[in-house]
Amino acid sequence: MTVKDDQLDDVISSLIDDDGEGAGATQGGLPGTSSMPPPPEPVQADGPPVKLTARAAKQIRKIRETESMEEGLFLRVAVEGGGCAGLNYKLGFDYRTEEDEEVESQGLKIIVDPRHMIYLNGITIDYPDGLDARGFTFDNPNASENCGCGASFAV
Fold first, then answer.
1. What is the largest CA-CA distance in the chain?
2. Cα separation of 77 and 12, whole Å?
3. Using an 8 Å Cβ cutoff, are 155 and 40 in contact?
4. Which residues contact 66 (CB under 8 A, 6 or more apart)?
5. Model confidence pLDDT, tens digit, residues 73-113
């Protein structure tokens, strides 16, 4: 999936919690989790369960700096039921909850709701910045198929 910069701003805005209680991470998890398909068989990942490439980490740092985000916000990687293949990737900045798993990649702390980890374990997030591709992309070993537009995946 490729998320354009303006789309990422929308995702970030929808996940940032202004009241400090953790947007989307309390009261049953992120929106759309009730419509998620059964989890896939667990994938054994080499290294951290969620990995960022150097390019993705650079872009995330740039977004944090441009948006002047406070230190208490972490990069949240999640999935949401929907899309033409069944699940959509979600990226945004959010407050950590007690239930969240925390991983580190490229010096950045990433939070993941444990209910989403089975769909994301082993994922690599990149940010190609060429003429034919720009935006965040996801290489997910758990995906059995991806939709044609790259906006969703199935397990």
1. 42
2. 11
3. yes
4. none
5. 999 999 888 777 778 889 999 999 999 999 999 999 999 99
Residue 90 pairs in a beta bridge with 78
pLDDT < 50 positions in the chain: 1-5, 7-9, 11-33
Q: Determine contact, residues 17/94, Cβ cutoff 8 Å.
A: yes
Question: How distant is the alpha carbon of residue 3 from its chain centre?
Answer: 11
- Six token digits for residue 46: 């080499």
User: Can you give the C-alpha Rg of the chain in angstroms?
Assistant: 14
How many angstroms separate the CA atoms of 142 and 31, rounded? 21
Q: Are 108 and 75 in contact (CB under 8 A)?
A: yes
- The whole model's pTM is what? 0.69
How is the chain classified by DSSP, letter by letter? Answer: --B-HHHHHHHHHHH--TTSS-TTTSSSSSTTGGGPPPPPPPP--SS-SEEE-HHHHHHHHHHHHHTT--TTEEEEEEEEEETTTEEEEEEEEEE--TT-EEEEETTEEEEE-HHHHHHHTTEEEE--BSSS-BSBEEE-TT-SEE-TTSSEEE-
Structure tokens at 22: 């953790």
